[in-house]
Amino acid sequence: MNFGSESTTDEVLEGIALAGQWVLITGASAGLGQETARAVVAHGANVVLGVRDLDKGERAIADVRAAAAGTGAEVELRAVDLASLASVRAFTDAVVAEHDRLDVIIANAGVMATPELNTADGFELQFGTNHLGHFVLVNRLRPLLGGAPARIVNLSSAGHRFSDVVLDDVNFEKSPYDPWLAYGRSKSANILFAVELDRRGREAGQRACAVHPGTIITELGRHLTAETFATLDAARAAREPIWKSIPAGAATSVWAGFVADADAIGGRYCEDCHVAQVTGDTASPDCVYAYALDPDTARALWARSEELVGESFPN
Question: Among residues 19, 238, 256, which one has the least CA distance to residue 150?
Answer without folding.
Answer: 256
